[in-house]
Design a protein that fits this description.
This protein is α/β, with parallel strands linked by helices. It is built from 12 helices and 11 strands.
Length: 394
């Protein structure tokens, strides 16, 4: 059935009790859309879990506007999509199976009576009936698209509340991503090309969540991926959903029309996850609350390494900060970091090529980063570079 998808944006014929909907599209489109929190409905026998109808209109039950955007994007891009049919309060498909927030007993102040005292048997029932079938459907579509010769980029559509506990969130949208920058960075660039938009980089949430949907189907499968969060006040009505569907579809189309698209976006490449921190790795800042006098040399090295990793991750998320501008302002750039990394390795007797060191800093081969993110330097930039750096080639 997945190979005969004649009309994009229409729902595939599925069993009546399927906990997901598949929107049909071309397996050669190169894009797979996901909507993990598409609906606030419940299957027979669950009676809304005892949650009041007014609460089911809130973000605790689903992502308002996300389903509408996904349906429209599926039609505009001719791309298949997988969407959930039931509320995230039943079980959240965007969490790992061992995540404590998989089945919420209290969500943003709202008690969920039907989840109180849930038995292990009921938990397994929900995993088998609603959670795992959704993820199997996503995997099946990915497999079919790879078999058709076009490993897809994974694009997940979510929405977030404009007001969080009295604070008005400033972002119109946010791009969530982990270590794979291939789709996220061009998407950030495309959105930031509109000066009227405030765009968050891993805001309002972090994009590295072990076991979540993108971790399972993007990170672990080596597929380029990104998750978009759109502010809900912008997409509550059909007009707002259409505007954002058109905006996102246009940006994705431009990204995938890049001459290097097949080698970059449709390659299977493993970047790993920031959420996979090994035991004993450097802790997050502030975790121990130690002052300098309490930091032993080994811990200091670990902290310095953690700060370096944070700097590299920050630079990977800010391709708008061009190397030539970094050189002109601060006298160093990403290539300097790669050179220093290579030199440190050589001092330890480790052979490391310049290309390998640069890929560590850039998060992808240097030539790919240049093609995606580096415009031609302006005469003003070049003039400043000559004056400040003496024209040294970095």
């Amino acid at each position: 059935m997945l190979h005969t998808v004649p009309k994009s944006g229409t729902a595939a014929s599925l069993p009546a009790d399927a906990p997901y909907t598949i929107l049909q599209g071309s397996l050669a489109s190169g894009v797979l859309l996901l909507c993990d929190h598409a609906d606030n409905s419940f299957p027979p026998g669950y009676d809304s879990l005892g949650v009041a109808p007014a609460q089911l209109q809130r973000h605790i039950a689903y992502d308002p506007g996300a389903a509408g955007i996904t349906r429209l994007m599926s039609r505009m891009l001719g791309a298949p999509a997988v969407m959930t049919r039931y509320s995230r309060l039943l079980i959240d498909p965007n969490r790992g199976e061992d995540d404590p927030t998989l089945i919420m007993k209290i969500s943003d102040g709202a008690i969920v009576p039907g989840n109180a005292g849930i038995s292990q048997a009921e938990r397994e029932k929900r995993l088998d009936s609603f959670y795992r079938p959704y993820h199997r459907a996503v995997d099946a579509l990915i497999d079919a698209m790879i078999e058709a010769g076009k490993p897809p980029v994974i694009f997940s559509v979510h929405s977030f509340t404009e007001n969080w506990r009295g604070w008005m969130r400033p972002w119109h949208a946010g791009v969530l991503w982990d270590r794979d920058p291939r789709l996220a960075i061009p998407l950030l660039n495309g959105l930031r090309g509109d000066p009227s938009l405030v765009v968050g980089d891993n805001e309002p949430y972090a994009g590295a969540l072990r076991g979540d949907c993108m971790y399972q189907h993007g990170t672990m499968r080596g597929l380029a991926n990104a998750l978009i969060e759109v502010r809900q006040d912008l997409i509550r009505d059909e007009a707002g959903q259409a505007e954002w569907a058109e905006k996102l579809s246009a940006i994705l189309s431009r990204i995938l029309a890049n001459s290097r698209a097949d080698a970059t976006f449709h390659a299977i490449r493993y970047y790993g996850s920031r959420s996979d921190r090994a035991p004993g790795a450097a802790p997050a800042a502030g975790e121990h609350g130690m002052d300098n006098a309490q930091i032993d040399p080994r811990t200091q090295t670990e902290l310095e390494a953690a700060a370096f990793r944070r700097l590299v991750a920050h630079l990977q998320g800010r391709p708008d900060a061009q190397n030539i501008d970094l050189m002109n302002l601060a006298g160093f750039c990403r290539n300097c970091l790669a050179n220093w990394y290579q030199e440190a390795a050589l001092e330890k007797g480790i052979e490391l090529s310049k290309d390998a060191a640069r890929e560590m800093v850039y998060g992808m081969p240097y030539e790919e980063w240049k093609a995606l993110s580096q415009p031609e330097a302006t005469p003003a930039q070049l003039g400043r570079f000559e004056a400040v750096a003496g024209g040294k080639n970095h």
